[in-house]
Amino acid sequence: MADWLDGVRALLPGARVELVEQLGGSQRSQVRRVRADGRTVIVKQFAGSGDGWVREAAALSVLPPRAPVPRLIAENTAPPIVIMTDEGSRGSVADALLGNDSAAAASAVIAWAEAIARLHQATTGMRQAFRDALAQRAGDLPVADSAVADDLDSAAGVVEEHCGTLGVEVPGGALAQLRSLADRLGADGPAALTPTDACPDNNIWTDSGDLVLIDFEGAQWRHVAWDVAYLTAPWPTCWCSWRIPAEVGERAIEAYESVFPLPQGFRGEIEAARTGWAFISTSWFLRQALVEGVRPAKQDLPAPSRRAMVLHRLAQASGTGDDLAVLAARLHAALTERWGPVPLAYAPAFRGAGG
After folding, report:
1. Which is more confidently placed, 132 or 49?
2. Nearest Cα to 226, choosing from 173, 166, 281, 164?
3. How many angstroms separate the CA atoms of 33 and 85, rounded?
4. End-of-domain residue from the set 21, 52, 85
5. Which of 117, 161, 178, 316 is the most exposed, having the fewest neighbouring CB atoms within 10 Å of its CB?
6. Are residues 253 and 331 in the same domain?
7. 260 with 344, same domain?
8. C-alpha 234, offset from chain centre
């Protein structure tokens, strides 16, 4: 503890600093609330030599005041720390989804969409500023401002490997079509700075009732459809990826568009991103899903299983009739034969309404 506290004291010279509480953490980082001369701040300490600190510090350093995010107070490389404003502890969208009030959960999802839209609106045109901020902090670490093409290429390779193991024939153009989404949904389209992992638990309600987005250790510059598709996939990078009613998702997309108007035909881009997420997340989860049965993705909380996530997303990607959809359908059929049907449940808050 002494190392990171010493780092905080060095960044807040003269302040009396004490730990208030541990807020969370992972193998990548630890998050703590700290009191410094009568006010509380949030300290995020990063582990290892990855690019999490680079991305979070860079993103927070360029995000303008109108973006619904914490404000950067200070940063340090050794130990790798960011200190940011304390936005409160009134719960998250995930808490609403875990509750028993469907109206509150729907309102929370819509607030999430509006917050993402405000972030996108606030950062449009800031790609070079983000690139410069990354470069200032990266040193010899290779840190690109966008990883979409790499993610899709990796997903194509992993899916092809699994298809070989499962005896699933891959249509000739399917993997090329998957990789081509990097051009269709590239960073040169309607793009913005995004946390890339805008899960229902990566936000916090402030005392004033606003929703603030947190956790930018994966921050990238990318096409906004990848974020909007979180409402239809749903939540593809998250443990709490329960289904939400279609009408709630539609209302949330409309709320997004009321803040950040989208070009005609953009709904097709959302569907393309949803298909991309189906294969990217399948490449992440399928190896464990093949051996873990129906264990929840996050075992200390009520969460869907990886099998449910994979089957639901592949079913969604099966509808267009092109080579990629045929591959999704074949893989879905092979896995259903192996596992049986594993439906993706609605979020707990929506189950009383027939979900």
Report:
1. 132
2. 281
3. 10
4. 85
5. 161
6. yes
7. yes
8. 11
**pLDDT tens for each residue of 99-117:** 999 999 999 999 999 999 9
Section 341-352 average pLDDT? 93
Average pLDDT of the residues in 334-338 = 97
Work out how many domains the chain is built from and give that number: 2
Helix axes 323-339, 266-292, angle to 10 degrees: 30
- Contacts (Cβ under 8 Å, ≥6 apart) of 225: 185, 189, 190, 266, 269, 270, 272, 273
Answer yes or no: do 46 and 175 share one domain.
no
Q: At what angle do helices 148-166 and 266-292 cross, to 10 degrees?
A: 50
Listed residues 85, 111, 133: the one ending a domain? 85
Per the model's pLDDT, the better-predicted residue between 190 and 78 turns out to be: 190
Considering the domain architecture, whether residues 31 and 165 belong to the same structural domain is answered as no
Pairwise CA distance, residues 279 & 274, whole Å: 9
Output the pLDDT for position 97.
Answer: 96
pLDDT in tens, 246-279: 999 999 999 999 999 988 889 999 999 999 999 9
Structural domain range at position 13: 2-85
